[in-house]
Amino acid sequence: MATVPELQAALQRAQDNEARYRLMLEHSGAVCWTVDCASLRLVYLSPAALERFGYTLEQAQALAPMLLQDLPARIARYAAGDHSVRFLSSESEQPHRDGRLIPVEIDSTLVCNADGDVTSVVGVIRDTSSRRELLEQQKKFASMVSHEFRTPLATIDGAVQRLESTGAHHDEATRKRYRKIQSAVDRMLELLEEYLSPERLASIGRQRLANEISPRALLEDAAGAARLRRPQISVHSEGLPQWLRADPNGMRLCLEILLDNAIKYSPQDSPIVMTGRLAPEGGVELLVRDHGPGLAPDEHERVFERGVRGAAAQAMAEPVAGSGLGLYMARSVLEVQGASISVRNLSESGAEFRIWLPMLAPAGKSLAPDGCSSDNSLT
After folding, report:
1. Helix 326-336 × helix 129-166 angle, to 10°
2. Homologous superfamily of 24-127 in CATH?
């Protein structure tokens, strides 16, 4: 049996340890807390709470329910034999006293008495702002890589697809160069897929952007949105491939621009026809036909330049507002993808705008043979 001096010494050691632990908590950057389970009140809150969140112990009493979330379920599991007393919550947001939200992570542990009853919960609130900032930087990096690499690759990809689909008269050595370029582009895109896969991007809160479109669905979606302004819009398609490699958002923008112009420059009750089909020279053509005044002969090329508007814009009974940037934007988007846009007047009335998109031949691609010279020509 312990003597009085021994008990006094043990008590002193316990008090010294408590003082040291309290000193450590009060100098820690993390917010430490203790909640009494009987009263559901905060009985301790480290000074860091005032610096981090603007709360004193009394001001923070309203936070106790949030700190004790899932407590009944945890106590029930503990009573059933699960003695995993530590609990790490998922990230949440802690309100600062000034109203702004701070991302935090809460780590808490059940404290039991000698009889095994849960008497209190102690824990730590960690500010995860720096972690969130790092994730944002990762998102920006992923976006930069996606844009800075995919944009020039899309230019090369579109150009070589166009050469392949329109170069039937080229000799075999030239066609093999095209296929080797296409294979190199495909390999670069595969590397981007590997390192910017949906799973990796989802882990940093970002989804990989698609680089394929269904041309039939593209036409239907664009027409559906435009019918709110002009119900007489019809869509015809024949022989279209299921998928084409192209930027979906860019293609939607181009069709929206063409439909917007067709609606503005044609009579209110006149039809607008959208057509998608295989192009005679290879590839795919998307056509938007209206029954407006058409374009003057010298405007067929100029209308795609920055700031240029056709004479019809001013000749309408009610002048049509605009900046002359729509068709310029459409051409810029298409050229990056190796596509093109043109316009012609129809003999009966109106104009027909044509988007041409390259499409690879169904035959599989092959690398040029090993016996090629440095410029990929046959030796």
Report:
1. 80
2. PAS domain (3.30.450.20)
Global pTM? 0.46
- Pairing assessment for the beta strands 41-45 and 118-127 based on DSSP bridges: unpaired
Q: How many CA atoms lie within 13 A of 310 on its CB side?
A: 27
pLDDT in tens, 77-124: 877 777 666 665 656 777 777 778 888 888 888 888 888 888 888 888
Q: How far is CA 40 from CA 61, 119, 192, in A?
A: 9, 10, 52
Evaluated on CA atoms 317, 323, 326, 332, the torsion sign reads positive
Secondary structure of residue 238 in the 3-state scheme: strand
Q: What is the token pair recorded at 277?
A: 């089909």
- CATH 1.10.10.10 fits domain 212-357: no
**Backbone phi, then psi, for 372, in 5-degree steps?**
-85, 155
DSSP per residue over 211-222, as a string?
-EE-HHHHHHHH
pLDDT above 70: percentage of residues in the chain: 74
Pull the structure tokens for residue 365: 């691609």
Task: State yes or no: pLDDT of 24 exceeds 70.
Answer: no
The whole-number pLDDT of residue 224 equals: 93
pLDDT tens digits along 248-307: 888 988 999 899 889 988 888 899 999 999 999 888 999 999 998 888 888 888 888 887
Per-residue CA distances from 300 to 84, 288, 337, 355 (Å): 75, 15, 21, 14
Share of the chain above pLDDT 90, in %: 15
Beta bridge partners of 133: none
Tell me whether strands 86-88 and 101-112 are parallel, antiparallel or unpaired. antiparallel
How far, in whole angstroms, is CA 136 from its chain's centroid? 12
340 alpha carbon, distance to own chain's centre:
27
Helix H or strand E segment including 288: strand 284-289
DSSP character at residue 199: H
